[in-house]
Amino acid sequence: MSAREPYEIAQVAAETGAKKTRRTWDRVLVSAFLAGAYISFGALVAITVSSGLDPGTWGTLPTLFMGAAFTLGLVLVLIAGSDLATGNMMLVPLGAMRGKIGGRDVVANLTLVLLGNLLGALFVAFFLAVQTGVIGDADSVGSAALTYERLAGIAEGKALGESPWQTFLRGVGCNWLVCLGVWMSLAAPSVSGKVLAIFFPIMAFVAMGFDHVVANMFFLPAAIFTGVPDVGWDETLLNWLLAGAGNLVGAVVFVATSYWYLFLRDEPTAPVPAGAESAERA
User: Fold this and answer.
1) Would you say residue 240 has pLDDT above 90?
2) What pLDDT sits at residue 266?
3) What is the residue-wise DSSP string for the chain?
4) 231-249 per-residue burial string, b: 16 or more CB within 10 A, e: under 16
């Protein structure tokens, strides 16, 4: 099977978004929990591989290593199959633009998926990152101390080092790239092609320091659980609100609406191309 053309991707994406709203709430919640955990695994390995690298020696290369490692999260989401809010922010509204579902379906799905993502991220942050000692605390030594210092730097930058406007805009840029990764993965007929399509957009958004609301559901609570100074729930909730709003704009305006306008606006509802059922995993 050859790669899908852009107009075929648009058709598959719209159908996939509509199908995501037609499952029972419990299946959506479990699927979203898994996605939150998968993104957190990517975030945890990204912290691990980039810790202990002195910027004076390495410059900005640690952010490149971090971005490359973080791609694990979206690879797990798309290949294993689960529901990630940032991807659904593009797919589900696109299904509504095609008239396959209503606005209430969009709101219900995104709300439930965000809740499931949060539960999965908190689970990994508390039990698998902090309680395991993979990320240490201020009194740790060795590799655990290095991961603590790396997490503290990331969390303080996101919670304290960005203005609200910057956080929002970083959220826009983040999910524009994330959704392009999801979009391009729909073009690929093979697992290897999907992984390659995912890698560069995800690596880029992390390397540039953009804000992904689900990743921040891991970074900031993990920092609170390990006692990073000055990072509290007030700063965390504000970050989630602003980053999430930016993610929504990046997905809906710059990907879903743009490609709906280019490929679907004047087209009648058409049968989904052969093989589209595999795209449901996105």
Assistant:
1) yes
2) 85
3) -PPPPHHHHHHHHHHHHHHTTSS-HHHHHHHHHHHHHHHHHHHHHHHHHHTT--HHHHTTHHHHHHHHHHHHHHHIIIIII---HHHHHHHHHHHHHTTSS-HHHHHHHHHHHHHHHHHHHHHIIIIIIITTSSS--TT--THHHHHHHHHHHHHHHHHTSS-HHHHHHHHHHHHHHHHHHHHHHTT-SSHHHHHHHHHHHHHHHHHTT---HHHHHHHHHHHHHTT-TT--HHHHHHHHHHHHHHHHHHHIIIIIIHHIIIIITTSPP-PPPTTGGGGGG-
4) beeebbeebbebbbebbbb
Query: What's the pLDDT score for residue 92?
Result: 98
Mean pLDDT of 40-52: 96
Identify the sign of the CA torsion 31, 33, 39, 41.
negative
Superfamily name and number for 6-281: Glycerol uptake facilitator protein. (1.20.1080.10)
Lowest-confidence pick of 25-39, 220-234, 235-249, 267-281: 267-281
Using only the alpha carbons of the chain, give its radius of gyration.
Answer: 18
- The residue whose two tokens read 């970074």 is 219
pTM: 0.93
